[in-house]
Amino acid sequence: MVKSFTLKILKPTLNKNLLQILFFTTIFTLLSSKIVAQFNTTCQYIVTGPASGTTLETGGTSVVLADDQLSGAIPIGFNFQFYGNTYSNIYISSNGYLSFDPLAGSGCCSGQLLPSTGLPNNLIAGFWEDLNPSAGGTITYLTNGTAPNRRFIVYFNAVQHYPSGTPVSFEIKLFENSNVISILNISCPSDGGINTQGIENIDGTIAHVPSGRNAANFSSTNETVTFTPIDNTAPVITCPSNITVNPTAGSCTAVVSYAPTVTDNCSVARTSVVAGLASGSSFPIGTTNITLRARDDGSAGVFSNGAGGTFTFNEGDNAQTIALKACESFYGTGNCSIGSCGLFTYYYRTGQLSCNCAKTPGQFEWVYSNTGYTDVGQDYGGTSAALPATVPFCRVKGEASCSVPNTWLLADNNIGGNQSTCSFSVTVNPLSAPTSVTASPSTTCAGSTVQLNATSAGNTISWYTVPSGGTSIGTSASGANFAVTPSATTTYYAETQTLGPSSTLTYNYTGSLQTFTVPSGVTSISIDARGAQGGGSSGGTAGGLGARMTGTYTVTPGQVLNIVVGRKGQLQIGGNAQNSSGG
């Protein structure tokens, strides 16, 4: 009879290759993912120009507007950020401006002084004055290019002033990803009225306009004015709470997706994994620590170089590359060299070394490594400013002598500071041990059938007759019966076993029928069956080798396969080896 049942947790023994079964499983995603971005309204712009020349793009869809009319919603074709807010539609005023506000109104009948809290707001003024497209000229819009570098274009072509009839032609371009705005003044003569060119935020409290073009009488021909968003504020990233999951059924891993929340004031912050595994990866059993970073994307944001200019850098650029781009943005491509001063290494204008005071007051250099220093400004006689190691920054020389206090001043903008990090963990629980190990009936006569049963959700149960090691007598699905026919009092042991992709099980000779229950998710098995060697003779003749057959078979989860493994033939006394075959 069967007198007891003992729990057993071990790894399967796979050192003998008589019968191998190969499993193919499917791993399922446990969580869904979505990156969430939010924006505020503190973004600022740098106004460049007017610069000579225009690059005109024409064609597209016509917009028919009467005098003093605002169009309906027009799709931009991509998401565009303007003063920290994101828009997908825009509205065209017949009087020469675009607005993201459907209630902006027509803006009759002259250019307004910006900023102004009165309507219209949230606008881009190309050549805002009293224009009348119904009297002559056309207005078209077009989305051109391919993502992520598309352009949305609105073209006022020979639209007439009211009442003079003088035609005006200009084009406004919105650039995807960089969020740059360009106004191309093709032919914008004044007719004596008040014109405005510039941009204004959502509530009319902030505006950026080129000099002499704010509610003024001006003319412009073949010139381009550019408005570039500048981001000196680090984004804020919030990681999800620590995640704990169970392994995927039939696997020693779990596929986990996660989504941080990122907020930024102006540009699109790019999220990257600093440590740990990316969202959607297969996480192993145990705890994986993850650190995420949000950084203003150089392709979607422009940074001050601390010296009155701007530059861009991309996620993944190292500090040295960032410093070089910053330096060249001020001195020009090819005009920067790498130098050192003590433990400092930096980029500087070719031919002008800072440590020997060759620079003149007002010149700048971009340091990209301050390892060994915690008080950078003071080390150079400047204003004290503690910075962490490897953070690039900009210095300006303020006085002629290097020994005079405050000679080297750290620029206000910390070039590498537009980033932030957060951390959390993903824990994949270990396999659950079998529970509710039972035999039915628990007492029986020799040779009678007993049904064994154990539970370990999502896993396979392997059955043994020894407490550790040994050979499995068969497997069953969690909660399924496993039939045995003991001939004497026997202790049976249940083991939790997970079968992942390309897992193998080996079955050896036991003298009795063995079974295998196809796990959940397994639809195909590969079998490698190797026949045992025949027995030898007392005369020293070796037995013949067994045959080997392999094949792949389609199976169904829960299907029970019966497995019989033969043994090696016995030694024959006084006979031939050929009379003692293996199994």
By oligomeric state, this entry counts as single chain
User: Helicity level, as a percent range?
Assistant: under 10%
Uncertain segments are: 1-41, 370-390, 412-417, 575-579
User: Would you tell me the overall average pLDDT?
Assistant: 76
User: Quick one: how many beta strands?
Assistant: 43
What is the structural class?
A: mainly beta
Sheet with most strands: 8 strands, antiparallel
First and last CA, distance? 30 Å
β-strand amount? 35-45%
- Radius of gyration, in Å, reads 38 Å
Outline type: elongated
Helical run tally: 2
Please give a handful of descriptors for the protein shown.
eight-stranded antiparallel beta sheet; six-stranded antiparallel beta sheet; disordered N terminus; 2 helices; mainly beta; 583 residues; 43 strands
